[in-house]
Amino acid sequence: MYYIEAKKGNKKWISGIFLKEQDAANYFQLIAEDIRNSQIVKSAFFEEYPVYLVEAEEFYFTDLQGVNEAISQIEIVPDFKYIYINIYEIKADFTPKKAGQDYMGILKHLHINNEYLKRYKKFCFEYNLFDLPWDES
């Protein structure tokens, strides 16, 4: 698997994800020259979808077991109002319409915050990560 990681100032994003190296190279050439120098093609050791992209301090790809491990390792901070990590489910090549831009929000993703962690601890073995019910009790 190949992906294009972009950085502008403190902001990082993934601007494309591909199974084939040539597809990543072709897409990279579509990125406007003025922003191409802030992007790099990288590889990950996956050969098929689905895969999961974890956005923490850095981006990394993993399988479902790795996602569960990442979530389980989070130390809950009471009254923490922010997101610990984001998890993206990748089921196909990701090729945003505007090459090189940040369109990660269109990917199926989760914001792992205290509310999600509460639901995860209660329902993680019964449901898909992306389909945890809201506990109203």
Keywords:
137 residues, alpha+beta, four-stranded antiparallel beta sheet, three-stranded antiparallel beta sheet, 4 helices, 7 strands, 24% helix
Can you describe what's shown?
This protein is α+β, with helices and mostly antiparallel strands and 137 residues long. The protein is built from 4 helices and 7 strands, in the order E-E-H-H-E-E-E-H-E-E-H. It has helices spanning 21-30, 33-36, 64-72, 114-123; strands at 2-8, 11-18, 39-43, 51-55, 59-62, 85-90, 109-112. The strands form 2 sheets. A 4-stranded antiparallel β-sheet has the order 5-4-6-7.
Task: Provide a quick synopsis of the model.
This protein has helices at residues 21-30, 33-36, 64-72, 114-123, and strands at residues 2-8, 11-18, 39-43, 51-55, 59-62, 85-90, 109-112. It has 137 residues and is of the alpha+beta class.
Listing every helix as H and every strand as E from the N terminus to the C terminus, the arrangement reads EEHHEEEHEEH
Terminal residue distance? 42 Å
Structural class comes to alpha+beta
- Stretches where pLDDT is under 50 for at least 5 consecutive residues are none
Mean residue pLDDT: 91
- In percent, how much strand structure appears in the residues? 25-35%
Tell me the major beta sheet: 4 strands, antiparallel
Beta-strand segment tally: 7
Secondary structure tally, helices: 4
Helix content: 10-25%
Which strand order does the major sheet show? Answer: 5-4-6-7
What sort of overall outline do the alpha carbons produce when their principal axes are compared? globular
Specify the oligomeric state: single chain
Radius of gyration of CA atoms, rounded to a whole number: 16 Å
